[in-house]
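Worked problem 6 (solution included).
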Amino acid sequence: MRKILLACLLTLSVWAAESNVYKVSYNAPVDKVLDNMLAKFKQEMLVVVWQLDILEEFKHKGLDKKFGENFNKAGLTAVKTLVACNGKFGNDIINQDSDMMAYCPIRITLTEKDGVTTVLYVRPSSAPRDSKAYQSLVKLEKKVTKAIEESMEME
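Solution. The predicted structure is:
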């Protein structure tokens, strides 16, 4: 079963490579996906420096009341985000092209609907190819996407 799931994920990842946004979905609740990602990121030295439950923060700020029926029309049950950084990549990118720090630290958003969690991540490889930091950004992207995919293999 794991091999089938992995094959599906890899196929989805290749398809998503056509986009500037990496996207992968799991038939699991957002908290399980997030917990697995946090554990894998720690192993991979991707330090999570900030997290936010966006949907709950919106509700806390009264946006559900303010927008009424126009609030969360997508029907998402969760929207969470995290910001993570790897010191080596961050330092390399600063030294190579500090403008590319817009891609590092990385930001990942998780959404949940009907028990399916989708992980979204803006690909650093969407940066200008002529940047001196481009190769470091590509390596960072590979590290992050691999960690996301491997996180759901953890039990």
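Discussion: The longest helix spans residues 134-151.
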